[in-house]
Amino acid sequence: MSSNNKLELSRLLKKEVRTMGIRVNLMENPLFKEIYEKHFEENVQQGMEQGIQQGMEQGIQQGMEQGIRQGMERGIQQGINKATQQIVRQMLAEGLPIALITKVTQLSAEEIQRLH
Hints:
The protein is an all-alpha fold.
């Protein structure tokens, strides 16, 4: 370690020791201690309230995003299902065999029969 770094470290340590001494002396003062504790409690309470509020806002946002995503997925799936049903009905109307419709649509024979 260079001599400049040692001097800087020494200066910082002395400053920290003085600061710690001031903190200890202040905490021994009843008025300061009362004010500190009051503000500490207020700040902790305020921090907790802000944290809860932010958590709720993030939760709502995430819930909305997830709801939209799930709604879109369900809508797409319902659209696919409806289109498949219409195609099956058209294939049946054209007289195509159920075995062929099953092969093309990947629907079971029972599902096709229900659409008939």
